[in-house]
Write a structure and sequence with these properties.
2,3-Dihydroxybiphenyl 1,2-Dioxygenase, domain 1; 8-stranded mixed β-sheet; 2 helices; 45% strand
Length: 119
Amino acid sequence: MPHPQRKTHTPNGFGHFDIAGPELAPLMAFYTTLFGWEVTPRGPGYAMVATPEGGPNGAMVETEAASLVFGVVVPDLDKALALATDAGGKVLLPKTDNGWVKKAQIADPAGNALTLIEG
């Protein structure tokens, strides 16, 4: 199934976000009401989010803890992972191909999570 309103990504720019929380319905209603974002359920615990032109698309994910994680598009995922660890970060999720994109998740030196997306 195609991604709603697929957008062109800028290398080393924001390309995706994940909004997570214990219940999707209130999150979907909140962001749809507040910003008019198009939220499309894609299965249990997951929905795609389309924002207006100029902003990245994202997802809503059902998880125990609330979080907001930004995704940065990198031209070379392996190189970015090596640079991140060399700069004091750590890999939280190794390189993964989820069928849509190749991605990984890192933590910066303070522990903030960031998704890296190859593109």
